[in-house]
Design brief:
The chain is an alpha/beta fold. The strands form 5 sheets. An 8-stranded parallel beta barrel has the order 1-2-3-6-7-8-9-10, surrounded by 4 helices. A 4-stranded antiparallel sheet has the order 13-12-15-17, with no helix packed on it. A hairpin with a 7-residue loop joins strand 12 and strand 13.
Length: about 525
Amino acid sequence: MARLLNVRRFAVLGAAVAGLLTATVAVPSSAAIDADPPQEWRSYWVDAFNPGIYNAEEVEQLVDDALAVNANALIVQTARRYDCFCNRALYPRTDAAVDPAPYDPLDEIIEQAHAAGLEVHAWVNVNTMWNSTTPPSSADHVFNQHGPDAEGDERWLNKKEDGTELQGANAYIDPGHPDAVDYIVEAVQSIVDEYDVDGINLDYVRYPDFSSSTTHSDWGYNDVSVARFQEATGRSEVPEASDQEWSDWRRDQMTNLVRKIYLGMWEVDPGARLSMDAITYGFGPQSVGGWESTRTYAEVLQDWKGWQDEGIMDTVVAMNYKREWMPDQAQMFDEWNEVLADWQGDRQSVSGPALYLNEIEDSVQQVQDVFTPTEAGNTVVGWSGYSYANASMTAAASSDPAVKDAERDALAEALTVGEDAPFAEPAAVPSMPWKDDPSDGHITGELVTRDGRSLDGAEVTLQPLTGGGESHTRASDGSGWFGFAHVPSGRYLVRIELPAGVVGKPVTYVEVTDGEIETADLSPLVRLR
């Protein structure tokens, strides 16, 4: 579905060059195809706390402003705090002051943006449950169902080591809770299924801030999560926040969630892109002693480097929010750009500067820095400006919409006018060969006993019998689910280590084909009483 938009996009790019852009897209001319615009991601993040998608007129202006900077994509906040700026998703419709139904913000932005040749990526906040002292109006909202009033396993709230659950008015989901994970996966699937989005952009796909140290996270102490960790490790005590085994386990919960979203999206639309907003706190790995010593990996437990390596993240869009006019932060910006470029492998990295922390001249400099090759000769594939609402420090300091509009116009001129302007010519969103023409497949399965109980933490080993590749072992999650992404086509043996008290078939065989998800059926499993 989403990949078919490439034809429309190239048609519109060709029309834009000729000055013939219209809402009705024609078949691409030979001239447009021969022009072969460069592949370079260019987008705005469009947050839902500011104007942009609250009505059709705002959307029209947003699209015009995106075209003015020669953008080719929009990252539009859709699921903000488990409230959706849409009408047809598992997330309930937002209470924000959008135009009343039947107006659907996501439908409107898709219709107008696609007509203009822009991709739309639905921005979904993953682990931020709610951020107000007033609860949401929908009884179905997660905060009302699984927040402060819920008890036992129904309580999905993340919790700090000291027992704190709310940080001010902010409530968070614990990604170690299996039911919360499954809800998130199904909610993302519902957006991909119901809307013609080009992809999903995950934000807050990590543990929260506000920890007592930059070397570990204080979060993750939901009772269900702690009990799962104890069961997995055979330990009886509540671990300290600095416990390395506990940190590794929590980081694995984030990785499992991403893997489950990735393969869940593939089930619905194999061509939809999964991107995420990567943390780049402080100096890069070059200055702090390696990836494992960064605040990204150690403090908020977000292993986006590992997600790219595994192939379960198509595009890392880094929140590289640094002030170019401060030498230390300019160095931070460059360090993160370097590893983003050099680590992306056969996936993609986009650098996302903070427009609101810089004046326009410095933002243009950062665009140029983004596309400067590293010593290894690599560059990131694109740029995403944060944010559409405030295109400069001047805009962020003003409440006057006219000032914000003027700064946005000035940024567009600086980026597109003149021979040396970085975005003087149109560009196409980079293709994804691993999705457009896949040369491998995937395996998933569920380990659930006949009485309906999940096997949490069971070791599942994937052993290739044909087609090459290596053996891999992975633990099932709290719902008994496991997944192996991007394994070479061929025949595999799937083997589980049955825990004590469970009997059943410990092995099965799976034939993997290009681009398909195969199910490893290991039922029936019986728990002895």
